[in-house]
């Protein structure tokens, strides 16, 4: 009887939570949630494509759920708290009863007639099977109470692309734009051609009006053009102005430098559910700015970066 009351007192509610989170980076959020669970004394139960299942102490469940919801937009959520005290007490009571029957059968075996021994042993075997099944149920209920189960499914959400155009005092700065590269590659443009352009190793030149263009088979693009600037000024000024324009438009500036008469500005920007590199190299010659724009998905661009740099004029 003491064991029954003890099991009822120790069995905390079983907590189960299911969430669907839209996030721009499911992998990063899954990593963060796994670290949060481990830090709270829990563990990773399973992790597959698009979902993660965690086990955490009940007192840590709210914090882990909050971390999941803060990592994106909650599309759906469910939370269930189930009292297990009575269910666990019932399992314990049935196990204790069968263990008592087993003890009595053992006593019967000591005085049983030879013909009855087989029947008694068969009953004992059946009891042992039932007892082991009840012990397994007891462990399961105890574990459910000791660890909240949190399942998070992820949906990749598109991040807003950087803004086109701008309100710079210098019109050519507002033309530094990843979407403009896409338009020029697909449709051509009225931009000014600056010589014959460049064709890095592994690229092919594209024909058509507008700036000189080249593309690689994996979708890395290079455009060479020129633009007028009404105010000749220092290269350091243009470096700072270009970096500020890109940040204002929603790009992440990865690097910016002015060396040997040339500014090199490398940025990244979300396009759909992936990131692209947008890089611009430019030189100022009086009232003309000579630009080389290059862009591609991060992995593809990094593989082509050296070829682009070698081909720069």
Q: What brief labels describe this structure?
A:
42% helix; 2 domains; Protein Transport Mog1p, Chain A; 8 helices; eight-stranded antiparallel sheet
Provide a concise account of the structure shown.
The protein has helices at 2-10, 26-39, 61-70, 85-111, 114-146, 178-187, 235-249, 298-311; strands at 14-23, 43-48, 51-56, 73-82, 148-156, 192-193, 204-206, 212-215, 221-228, 252-259, 262-271, 274-285, 288-297. The chain is of the alpha+beta class.
Question: What does this protein structure show overall?
Answer:
There is one protein chain. Strand 2 and strand 3 (51-56) form a beta hairpin. The relative contact order is 0.12. It is rod-shaped and about 115 Å long. The longest helix is centred in the middle third of the chain and has 33 residues, at 114-146. With 313 residues, the protein is α+β, with helices and mostly antiparallel strands. The chain starts with a helix and ends with a helix. Helix 1 (2-10) runs antiparallel to helix 4 (85-111) and helix 4 packs antiparallel against helix 5. It is built from eight helices and 13 strands. The chain folds into two domains: 1-154, no CATH class; 171-311, Mog1/PsbP, alpha/beta/alpha sandwich (Protein Transport Mog1p, Chain A). The protein has helices at 2-10, 26-39, 61-70, 85-111, 114-146, 178-187, 235-249, 298-311; strands spanning 14-23, 43-48, 51-56, 73-82, 148-156, 192-193, 204-206, 212-215, 221-228, 252-259, 262-271, 274-285, 288-297. Strands 6, 7, 8, 9, 10, 11, 12 and 13 form an eight-stranded antiparallel sheet that branches. Strands 2-3-5-1-4 form a five-stranded mixed sheet.
